[in-house]
Amino acid sequence: MFVDARQLDDGGTMAADVAIIGAGAFGITLARALRGSGRQVVLIESGGLEFEDDTQALYEGVTQGIDYNLDTARLRYFGGSTNHWGGWCRPIEAHDFEQKDWVPHSGWPVRREDLDPYYPRAHELCELGAFDYSPENLTRIGAPLGLPGGRIADGFFQYSPPTRFGERYRDDIADAQDIRCLLHANVTEIVAAHDTGSIERLDVATLTGKHITVTAKTYVLSAGGIENARLLLASRSVATAGLANQNDLVGRYFMEHPIFGPIASWICDAPELIAPFYGTYTALDGAVARGCLFMTPEHMAREGRLNTIFTFTPSDEIRYLPGRPAEDGPIPLETEMLTLLRDVEPGAEHAGVRVYMGCGTEQAPNPDSRITLADTVDALGMPRTHLSWQLTEGDRESLMANIATLAAAMGAWGHARLRRIVPADFTWNDVEMFWAHHHMGTTRMASDPKQGVVDANLKVHGIANLYIGGSSVWTTGCGATNPTLSIVAFALRLADRMRAGEA
Amino acid sequence: MAWSRRDILIGAGLSAALGGAVLWRLTPDEGRGPTVALVDRAAAARIGERLMATAVPPADGNAAKARIDALIATLPEGTRPAELRPAVADWVTADFEDGRMVQVDGWYLARTEADLAILAAVEARVAA
User: Fold this and answer.
1) Minimal Cα distance from A410: which residue of B?
2) Is residue A399 pLDDT above 50, yes or no?
3) What ipTM was predicted for this assembly?
4) Total domain count, chain A
């Protein structure tokens, strides 16, 4: 059932077995999966069922380094950021979980096999097709490019409708006898016991001035990749450095996925070799798929690179006009480059195609990219977020090298030449790009408490009854793979552990 | 294979323009050196001009010619121009496979095709 916290008595208390902070993809999935488990759940959501300006304003903060809109990069109402999710889905690759010598701070304490049992169920919740991202499945809708050299792999995303968790699963939450969803309820502090070894209660406030207390046996923080860190840091009445921050890790290692619109274009003399699924949404057994290219793990290991995922736009015809001055064309030297690929008759209407290419690219974990608390406070009196974020020269070099690798593979293929659009000497602060709004790393996962905030089971190190969900637990950026599907899979895994009495 | 006087004159002319000393081993039936492997020499010349104008470090015609000479030297004596194009295609593929690339206006070219484009630009200048 839904309960509006603004209607509760000021100073009241609510008790449950499990208190979940944040009703986004993780929180809704976990609460829903605990129905009938014998546990009473309270799901605490800052917003209401629809967008509200005053609640969204609680996200405002201060940035330093990379310019970033903290208040528009996520949504603060029931359903969370799934309310503006694009729906792109792929599982995290097995190699992404591994420790990589060339990526400092890499290596998750879980493996892909730990999530595999949950991905098919996560697929159902995200309203996707069969959980099959194999190359063989891709061949059912067309021939992959199969670029030579073993450096570039073909793959594909599946598209969720996208599932708006707050709409799609609203009735499930409303009808559940063992779930109370507290709306307009802002957790202002997660209060630890004096020895900080467990959580005692949650202090909750409404924007109308009501204060209530929530107690539970188990607490789960799933308020988003930025807000998870902010709330832990702001929970300092007992642990003065912030909750779970005894090793100064909370808020560090912030990562995003830089997205480039057209980062490259390429010409191809054999358009029949470019399967339609690369450029358009294509039906695949009831699912919607779209092709992409990415770096192979072997190549990344050999060259010491991060990953980049390249996507295509639909192709344009190129007309061959020999002798045309290069500056007259949409792209310098494009006509001339075509002559390196094939014999064409002057004036030929269908001499080749031009394909624009976008990409999402990986950022290495960087302890200096971090969330701290700002000097200013929000309408609830909570310190606002301060994000100091750096993308490094290494991140830039990796992206540029991956573009060159793709150019080399296309050249060796024999049917294409690639042109980089982004300037060779771009800097992260002046290049035209946008963001995936994937907030990762701020409560990273590691077996060693000195290396991470949560363990392999999402339990906070050193606190017996606090778990964290969402992409804040990501240890690395996982290429540019969109996190929502895996967030849902992790929530299902935690639910199973809770149901089994293991959490 | 015996070099004809005409071959030597053409080769010497291009070599003089580039300041080099090596003569083509090919029989340039069409009055050109290895740029006969290019589908459209005029188009390639425009690429070559951009390479010479903008490449960093600057494109060096002599170095380009020396690299092409070295490749040509691997061909059997008397290779005909018509037989050159497949060989160039192989060299271009090998360049891409091994990461020997040159950038011009953002385009990634194989070292060999860039060198041929530079030679085409030099030829066009000589002919002009």
Assistant:
1) B96
2) yes
3) 0.91
4) 1
- The sign of the dihedral angle between the CA atoms of A488, A491, A493, A495 is negative
Residue B45 contacts residue A333 (beta carbons within 8 Å): no
Domain membership of residue A237 (yes or no) is yes
Give the range of the structural domain holding residue A204, as residue numbers without chain letter: 1-49+75-126+164-254+440-503
Mean per-residue pLDDT over chain A, rounded: 94
Contact flag A336-B47 (C-beta cutoff 8 Å): yes
Q: Do A404 and B99 touch (CB under 8 A)?
A: yes
In a domain, residue A502? The reply is: yes
Q: How far is B93 from chain A (nearest CA, A)?
A: 5
Q: Residues of B with CB below 8 A from A335's CB? A: 43
Q: Which of A337, A356, A425 to mutate to test the interface with B (most CBs of B within 10 A)?
A: A337
Of A323, A332, A339, nearest to B105 by CB-CB distance is A332
Confirm whether A344 is domain-assigned: no
Q: How far is CA A139 from CA A84, A129, A225, in A?
A: 31, 16, 36
Nearest residue, CB atoms, B105 vs list A148, A333, A409:
A333
C-alpha to C-alpha distance for A79 and A488, rounded to whole angstroms: 13
Task: Show the tokens assigned to A423.
Answer: 């300037």
Domain residue limits at B117: 5-127
Which pLDDT band, with edges at 50, 70 and 90, does A133 fall under?
Answer: very high
Distance (Å) from the C-alpha of residue A404 to the closest C-alpha of chain B? 7
CA B80 to chain centroid, in Å, comes to 15
pLDDT 10s digits, A17-60 = 999 999 999 999 999 999 999 999 999 999 999 999 999 999 99
**pLDDT, tens digit, for every residue of A325-371?**
544 556 788 888 888 887 655 556 667 889 999 999 999 999 999 99
Q: CATH number of the domain at A197, please.
A: 3.50.50.60
In percent, how much of chain A has pLDDT > 70? 96
What tokens appear for A229 in the block? 């860190």
Chain B 30-89, residues with CB within 8 Å of chain A CB atoms: 38-40, 42-44, 46-47, 50, 89
Instruction: State the burial class of residue A179 (Cβ atoms within 10 Å of its Cβ: 0-12, 13-18, 19+).
Output: buried
Residues of A in Cβ contact (< 8 Å) with B110: 411
- Is there a contact between A497 and A457 (Cβ–Cβ < 8 Å)? yes
Quickly list DSSP for A113-142: HHHTTTHHHHHHHTT-S-S---HHHHGGGS
In a domain? residue A336: no
- Exposed (0-12), middle (13-18) or buried (19+): which is A343, by Cβ within 10 Å? exposed
